[in-house]
Design goal:
Elements: H1 9-18, H2 27-31, H3 33-37, E1 52-56, E2 59-64, E3 73-76, H4 87-93, E4 99-103, H5 117-131, E5 138-142, H6 144-155, E6 162-166, H7 180-192, H8 198-213, H9 217-227, H10 232-243, E7 258-263, H11 266-270, H12 276-286, E8 293-298, H13 305-308, H14 310-324
Helix pairs in contact: 1-7, 5-6, 7-10, 8-9
Length: 325
């Protein structure tokens, strides 16, 4: 089975070099720079005002909804993303659930932490659950955020009520057969391929959003403007840490049900010769060992499925939550 893109452009570029069968192009980013500059207002920049805002280990937490009603949801954006990725999800669930939206250090203009950012975020989510006494929260993560959800569910199996991962997996697709030394080499190579200057990083983000991120080019350019607010060095550290990670041995310890949302776009998949069911089966194979796993395909959608298909994604989350009652 060929690998599928999971994390934003820096990781995708490195996998294109390191893993056969995966490739992306960023050439369109340079061609469309003028169009990006001409966008008068960013449709995703205006986010909902939270009821409460606080920090845990440098992680910004924004609470929406009544803290005392319903099962808590913890929304974790992916690499180089902020709360802007979850606005439709917040609207869909904050009336019945307390919704805690996280922005990780180094992303969306937040100050970075110097070392081991994924490990810091892993500890922060556990600390949030403990300090706020959240009763069996469901962690909803996109990409890196989904991987973080698995990690916390392995660390705190009795405290997590469920994990929903939107195109997030316990190991980077395409690296599941690598030895630890090879994994480290890929991670190190990836960090060196991230542009450190703001203009270069912005072009990488736009190229990613237009090829892997979302289907609509107008949305892609708007989202790229926002993801470019992240610290390139921090993005590299997170991505390298995740590339070095393989959570599959601990999946057996997870007690909570898992829902994996697998985005599928026929034109993209045709380049790899992969059917919708085959992609879902591949994702399911990477979760072998977890006791309760459901994989739901959402189409047509790219990596940011909650942007491309918000209604379908919210319906899948709602069905998952209803089954927990």
């Amino acid at each position: 089975m060929k690998p599928f893109a999971l994390l934003p452009v820096a990781v995708a570029v490195v996998l294109a070099l390191a893993v056969p069968g995966l490739s992306i192009s960023t050439s369109r980013a340079a061609d469309s720079g003028a169009a990006t500059a001409a966008i008068p207002a960013n449709r995703f920049a205006a986010t909902l005002a939270p009821a409460e805002r606080f920090e845990v280990r440098g992680v910004l937490v924004e609470r929406h909804g009544n803290a005392a009603s319903g099962r808590p949801l913890i929304l974790i954006p992916g690499l180089a993303s902020g709360s802007w990725a979850w606005q439709d999800t917040i609207r869909a669930f904050s009336a019945r659930h307390p919704v805690y939206v996280l922005t990780l250090p180094g992303f969306n203009g937040r100050p970075a932490v110097p070392d081991a950012p994924f490990a810091n975020a892993r500890a922060a989510v556990a600390q949030l659950i403990a300090e706020r006494k959240l009763n069996k929260p469901v962690i909803v993560g996109h990409s890196l955020g989904g991987t973080l959800g698995y990690a916390v569910a392995e660390d705190q199996p009795a405290l997590v009520g469920g994990v929903v991962a939107i195109d997030g997996l316990p190991v980077m697709p395409g690296t599941e057969t690598l030895e630890p030394a090879q994994r480290g080499q890929v991670a190190a190579g990836m960090r060196g391929r991230i542009a450190t200057d703001p203009a270069g990083f912005a072009r990488q983000q736009q190229g990613y959003m237009r090829t892997i991120g979302v289907l609509d080019m107008g949305k892609a350019d708007a989202l790229a403007q926002l993801s470019a607010r992240s610290d390139p060095a921090a993005v590299g550290r997170y991505a390298a840490e995740v590339l070095n990670l393989d959570l599959r041995p601990g999946l057996k310890d997870i007690q909570a049900p898992l829902l994996v949302i697998s985005p599928y776009h026929e034109l993209d998949a045709a380049q790899q010769g992969v059917s919708e069911s085959a992609k879902a089966d591949y994702y399911r194979s990477l979760l072998e060992g977890a006791p309760k796993v459901q994989v739901v395909s959402v189409a047509p959608a790219r990596h940011f499925a909650m942007i491309d298909q918000p209604d379908k994604v919210n319906e899948a989350i709602r069905d998952f939550l209803d089954a927990l009652q």
